[in-house]
Amino acid sequence: MRATGLTVFALLLFCSTAHGQVNRWLQDTAGRAAGRAAVQQIVERSAEEIARDIANGNPNSNRQPAKAPATPQRTTQGAEMGRAVSDFVPGDKIIFYNDVSRERIGEFPSQWDLLGGSAEIASINGENAILLVGSTELTPLMKTPKNYLPEVFTLEFDFYVPETAGWSWTFCLRAPGGKEDIIQFYWDVAARKNRSINTRWTTTSGDRRNSSVEIDLSRVGWHRLSLSFNQRALKIYVDGERVANAPDVAQPGWFATYTSGSAAKTGTYLRNVRIAEGAAPLGERVASGPSQTGKETKETEAQPSQPGSQTVKDITGNVDQFFRDAKWPALKKEDAAQDIYKVVLNDRPYDLVYLVRKKEEQLVVFAVFREKVAESHRVAVNEYLTQVNFDKLNIGNFQMDFSDGEIHFRAAIDVKHGVINPEIVKQLTFEYAIGVTDKFLPGIKEVENGSTPEEVLDGISD
User: Which candidate, 132, 148, 129, places its Cα nearest to that of 140?
Assistant: First the structure.
């Protein structure tokens, strides 16, 4: 296939060696270190993890397939418990997010403050997490430590359920500037089929209410808790199952968690804590997940583009508009240097990553393979991809990192002296990132299965 089109636009042809990978491509200046970390953080998350984030607001959750929630047993006082429906919508403006996957084992978690006890970064089943030892209390390290929660926000985190344990775990949202628990939810940590999830809260008039719902926490491993607060309405979910639904709750100001009991031998494990501004509108049921593009503000609203007047704001806005038009949910991360999006393709073995390079005024679209090439096949696969780049492609190129076998395809457009619109983003996505990758992906598998690159290329038409 000879890729054509986009003749009035300056498309970048990134044909470099097979050693380049997404984060390495950003290493040309020291100032992009944060950008490399941001890209790598999004690229390395698995399809299941991002799919849960898109569908249920669960970033980096327990790597288990989603399951239909069971109807909880009700033992309530105060507000009636909601049905087991996954209508959680995560906030889109991140206030706090802690990924400890690259922190050093044995060190105190860098984005947290210790209010008592002992905590450190530990590994459980090969994955980093925050370990709370014995009776320990932690809170996020913030510039305004006791007054940072807005009127509308969401809170999410992973917690580990062990086979046996002898302690209780409490998470609380406290009064602005104070120590009073406005919202408190807690349970005994050990795996159990009928585990009670208990919730207490203070109403806007100062009354104390409580509720309790039994759910199945018999599976040993990571589980996900998600909380939504909208002005006064509180909803809490465990693994997508709603366990609390209180309509009248006072405004909290900050978040903390603590453990108590005989946890000295095993401890409790926590990871991927995310606090973000925004939530589902009051009274609106959202069954299909979050908004399609994440943050939709004046900063990212697409405006009609005129030749010669393109801005970075318009690049981001047009990418946002493409996702709205396609009805594709996307995980989005923003910083001063770039905006990064990730979209999971459930029917393909790769995901899409979109990178808006603000200073350079460029948009790059990556198709990032989830599986990596085994070391014994990397030379042959690299030969195949290099020949594809040389003989078959006019736009974009394949790359492979020899150090770990990661493959991706990328195509890009430079709009510094041109324009962009959602149709161009669509063309980069479907004709190049997806179309080209789909065409040459089977050849990679054939080479891995023993065919020579020449044999495979002979069977691929232009």
Answer: 148
Confidence label for 462 from pLDDT (cuts 50, 70 and 90): low
Backbone angles phi, psi at 133, to 5 degrees: -100, 125
- pTM here is 0.49
Structure token pair of residue 253: 């100001």
> Among candidates 434, 431, 413, which has minimal Cα distance to 305?
413
CATH of the domain at 189: 2.60.120.560
**What tokens were used for 268?**
């409790």
Dihedral-angle region of residue 446 (phi above 0 means left; psi in -120 to 50 means alpha; beta otherwise): alpha
The residue whose two tokens read 């929630």 is: 69
8 A C-beta contact, residue 429 and residue 422: no
**Pair (339, 249) in one structural domain:** no
DSSP 63: S
Instruction: Please give the residue range of the domain that contains residue 411.
Output: 11-49+293-458
Question: What is the phi-psi region of residue 175: left when phi exceeds 0, alpha when psi lies from -120 to 50, beta otherwise?
Answer: beta
Summarised one tens digit per residue, pLDDT across range 185-231 is 988 878 888 888 999 999 999 999 999 999 888 888 888 899 999 98
The pLDDT value given to residue 296: 32
For the chain, first and last CA: distance in Å?
4
* Pair of tokens at residue 90: 């995560």
Q: Give SS3 for 268.
A: strand
**At which residue do the structure tokens 């309405």 appear?**
233
**435-448 vs 378-391: helix crossing angle, rounded to 10:** 140
Residues 232 and 339 in one domain: no
SS3 category, 186: strand
More confident residue, 225 or 58: 225
